[in-house]
Amino acid sequence: MKLTFWGASRQVTGSMFLLETEDNYRILIDCGADMDKKAGSNGQEDESPKLDTGFFPFEASTINVVLLTHAHIDHSGNIPNLYREGYEGQVLCTDPTFSLTNLLLQDAASLNSRRLSEMGKSKKQKVQKKFVSLQKDLFLEKQVRESMDNVVPIQYNRKFKLADGVDVTFIPAGHLLGAAHIVINVYENGEKKSIGFSGDIGRRNYPLLTDPEPMPPVDYLICESTYGNRLHIDTQTPESVLADVIKRTCIDIPGRLIIPSFSVGRTQALLYTLNRLYTEQGFPNIKVFSDSPLALESTKVYQKNLRMLNREAKEYYDENESLFDFANFEYLESSKASREVSNYNQPCIIISSSGMVQGGRVEQHVAANISNPYCTILIIGYCAEGTLGWRLLNGQPTISIKDKEEPVLAKVERTDVFSGHGDRDDLVRFVKHQSPDRLKKIFLVHGDYPSMVAFQQTLQEEGFNQVEIPAKGQQYEL
Fold first, then answer.
1. Angle, CA 217 vertex, CA 215 and CA 218 arms, to 5°
2. Whole-number mean pLDDT of the chain?
3. Beta strands in 75-164 (DSSP E)
4. pLDDT tier at 249 (50, 70, 90 boundaries)?
5. DSSP state of 208
6. What pTM, to 2 d.p., does this model score?
7. Which CATH class is domain 238-414?
8. Which CATH class is domain 2-230+420-477?
């Protein structure tokens, strides 16, 4: 049996792992978009082998099945391209993952379509050359529909037979509604081998979501390491952190709070927390705007899957009949309504995507308020280097937004209390459910290279000595 690491290797994005049995049954675990195509986080150029033609470093048509841990684009974003390259099999995931993946991929396809349309109108030779290249890389709605037609929803904690001598189990991972750890059992030559894929590991006591469940004993563990070298900074509850910010920014002064937030997962946690503040702590009814059509649709998926949320959320729903709707809350569905919020002159909270303040409607809100000393911008997620969010966090005195240089007079704050990733202690706790005596190898993926190296050392101190940090394209015999 062979395992090849085609993504999230010495970098965070692009999760994609190929498992091949001796009978040549080929399983692709995740098929994510790579946000860092030139180099990994260790600064080394990507030297993985490529086919002469095609999007993937393998023949898509030879894959037998795709297993998807969760909906985020860095895990699902290249599934439509897999079908376009000739894949004809099924995608297995939980039912909420199917619904959220469909929304995210349709949103990405719409952006791709607009981008290609704008470039196609250009008469510049350089733009036209790039346009031809991108046509090969960017999927459209047709490919998304084809992909979603082949999804098979799988229940948690129920063994599913993939092929003779191969089965899979999806285990709740926290992190995002529907997210899963995946355990594959392969029976070869009278021997059973178990391979576990962590997906993204959630944190305990996160709003709405159940805690990540432990993985049963496996022989090989592929483990994410996003927070492998650090702990969460904020140790207070989301309610107390958000209450403090709102009091300082919208109650003590008549100010405006802008919260850039990813539409799937993060926004739902925010709205639920705000709802609890208003109903349980007597906060004044400050106007709250959610400015993301994708967030609206994602929230409907959360509402539909109430039974899969944590006990606290279900009890709150039983008492209040709503998780996300409260007094003075409004969804902004149209672009016109989004623009008109700039004219709202009372204290308010604006939640809008994207979380990195790069593109999306939030960029116009930041542009309109960046020089307003009564505005606070609260960053609640990871911001990749070079994004507008990253530049704001680095304290630049002026910011260029849409080719216009603006002085930064608004306050910029950050919190990681809404991060859906478990920190170093959570990751260690997850791994320690395994036996160092049985576990033959741990492979660290989905993290910056320094984070992986630090986590490798931490695990070795805990008695796990067989820890590998695979490079992209590296293959192992299991």
1. 100
2. 91
3. 90-93, 151-153, 160-163
4. very high
5. S
6. 0.93
7. alpha beta
8. alpha beta
